[in-house]
What we know:
Layout: H1 3-19, H2 39-65, H3 77-109, H4 113-180, H5 186-213, E1 221-224, H6 225-236, E2 240-243, E3 251-254, H7 258-272, E4 278-285, E5 290-296
Parallel strand pairs: 2-4
Antiparallel strand pairs: 1-3, 4-5
Helix pairs in contact: 2-3, 3-4, 4-5, 6-7
Amino acid sequence: MTIAGCIRERLLRAWFYINQTNPSGGEGQVPDSLQQKSCLKTYAPLIAIILSTAFGFGVAIYSISIGYYIIFQNLFYIPIIIACISYLTRGFIFSTLLAFLYFILVASFTLEPVILQGALIRVVLFIVIAGVVTHLALLKTRAEEALLLSNQQLHLLSSITRHDLLNKLMPLRGYLDLLSESRMDPTQQRYLREADLLTRSMQRHIDFTREYEKLGKNKPTWQSVTGIIKEIVETTLPVTFICDVACDDIKIYADPLLPRVFEKLIENSNTHAEGASEIIIRCMIDESALEIILEDD
């Protein structure tokens, strides 16, 4: 995406939120183009490099013009570090070019050997610092890529294993259903019920691994406690929802799977608390923690 396209996207995003509609005329849905990675975040390093470089050269020209040749050079470390972290090898090339431009700038004002020697030493320092930062940034990037690849392989293995186990469980449960239709004494019936319960428990555990696999794959978001509980109760249980006033303004920065935690708690109430007619949620805040209490009547 070009910078012009970036500006256009920001204008479209602002227009969308003002009018609460998308450019195609639909309502309540953000256009796909506006759901892409924010262009401001994409170009932030480049903008920072341009501004800090321009500022550094501006200060350098002014300082050298009045005969001041120290301190201002440190300003160039800012664009060098940003470039090397954000753009890796290309950032190192930029930093090397910046270092030589600095030397040319100094040489264009004075040819005194002592000052040129100091400028040359500064050029070497610029390049060395750029090389070190680039190397560390490359190590970090490669480690992240290796971790991502490892996680993908583990997820693939988990998915294949889960699929195979479910394929084995389905015929097993079918055989148990067929056995339940045959004549058996009470002891055999009890054993059959236990076997059926075990297979159902195994399936629940396998299904849980599917949910657990998603944990941490998406970025945390701010989520309303009362909003989560209310939505779950309204869609799963015919009970009254009572919320403490203290919970109304509380939001939790957590994984998007947080609603599943509350859903499981409410399912437990539905399963083990027969006759429950109310779900009560209370929030208690102290200096170091938030305590959320979920209970039924």
